[in-house]
């Protein structure tokens, strides 16, 4: 979606220090108008801090925040055309659900007509699947309901930029799916730019135009979900985005096709980042890049004898945890059609795991 | 059955205290108020409404109390709120404790001694002489309602500061960020979030100060110099000096009734004002 070269917001070498803690470390990031950007990363990696700098609650210790090309480091939050859904909701306990949601609209000058506010609030309540809840008090709502009120309170303002700090963490799967679809609709209909913080990589992969993976206050990689999935730049990203098997070994050859030696196997694949001979690195293979057969295949494939340790039925796919004495345990994803040909495997059975030499990526152990 | 018994047992001391120290004296005062003064003072049983019909004689005391207690409460509120706000929200954690202690320090000496200090400060050789020296004219401060008000604010300020401080301290500061995020400038954030959420503290502080002020006698006696006296002074006079216990009791009963009416009206008012919220009622 995001129109390239039309930045709505930008962090330029922004750092935030809290005493000795470096919550954001030289973060540079351009957010394009209309795009859906996700922050992905483990707890404490600085996602909330990045959002807070954009919203105006934190002034960067160094570096700049830009909105529409203007430096806004010192612009207070109430002057920024940005709304945020807080990780801890921060709903007003002394106001009803309706008044909470209407709060932002009532701050607008010139004042909006009462009827228009009521209509907008009711629509927002419907969007978050809470019609007729307007009169309730906040403490009369469940955790998931409160989270949706927080969401409604932000989207009702139709801001240019909406920051969402884990806005669906407390929702069940079905409701979360509904909210995800609603957010995507809003993005399309109103052209709102979204920045979403999430722990849920599936959510990030399915909703985002781009994903920004963070680690220890730094941005490790930004790219489309596909780019991140297919070409992770580091082992950390590969581990965080989708499931990955890592076979750790020593680099034996570099060049167009890199080679590592893992427990007696010589494995080759592309290396996106330069590696040195002799250093430790890992071959990263996605579970779906590996096939499972009863007999060794005749093709030009790397074939490894394994024992089935566990089977997880996933509907269209079946996931097997398999074990090899030298390589250890790894995951294999078998599509339904393949299983129909080969027949399923039971835990304890022997099988042959194989992949075409050259698939996967060799990544340093950053 | 059993937990109830335990509860009753635990409440027994409080109940006994309540009956012995509050209910019994109230009954005594109520009974006395219909009696007569004995020949040598004290109380002689009787049943007449004369004492109540005579209350008009002490009208000035009631008037002063009913005017200066609310004004004193409001003056305390307007001085205490900004102070509590500063302590709870603006002051750094390092300074906060220090400043809080400073608020309590006056309690370390008796109000009597501190009132003497004010007598000097407001008396002829104090502030008025300084003002005269600056050529700003001669003014009388001591023995005026203003002096009593100064004494009231000085003496009761901490009682107002603390409840407000506690309610502001407990306020979730993230709500202020949320309001700001939704476009509310600082003043609006204060009016729509901070102030309503600190109302429990304001209500508690006002009640505390107001109720205690209704019974105040020391400050008017010392800083009002017998010119500005409260119902409390009338009671001291009637029970201690003129030993007219019966009339004194009638004045006391009248004071209790006035308090009941004002406090009930006030509670009604705050409840309506806060939209019938439970968490904002009296305490
Ligand atoms: N006000 C603060 N004072 C001191 N340290 C802070 C403060 N706020 C955040 N930090 C630290 O900064 C780092 C980044 O915090 P941040 O809240 O941005 O993490 P996060 O990625 O949002 O984590 P989570 O997923 O758990 O919400 C953490 O190590 C945290 O302890
Ligand atoms: Mg966070």
The two chains with the largest interface, and their residue counts, are: A-B, 22 and 21 residues
Q: Evaluate the radius of gyration of chain B.
A: 23 Å
* Overall CATH class of the largest domain in chain A: Alpha Beta
Span between termini of chain A: 32 Å
CATH architecture of the largest domain in chain A: 3-Layer(aba) Sandwich
Our estimate of the beta-strand percent of chain A is 35-45%
Task: Name the CATH superfamily classification of chain B.
Answer: MetI-like
Our measurement of the CA-to-CA distance between the termini of chain B, rounded to an integer number of angstroms, reads 30 Å
Number of separate helices of chain A: 9
User: Spans of chain A of 5+ residues with little confidence (pLDDT < 50)?
Assistant: none
- The number of helical runs of chain B is 12
Uncertain segments of chain B are 278-283
Oligomer: heterodimer
Q: Structural class of the helices, strands and pairings of chain B?
A: mainly alpha
Sum up the overall morphology of chain B in one term: globular
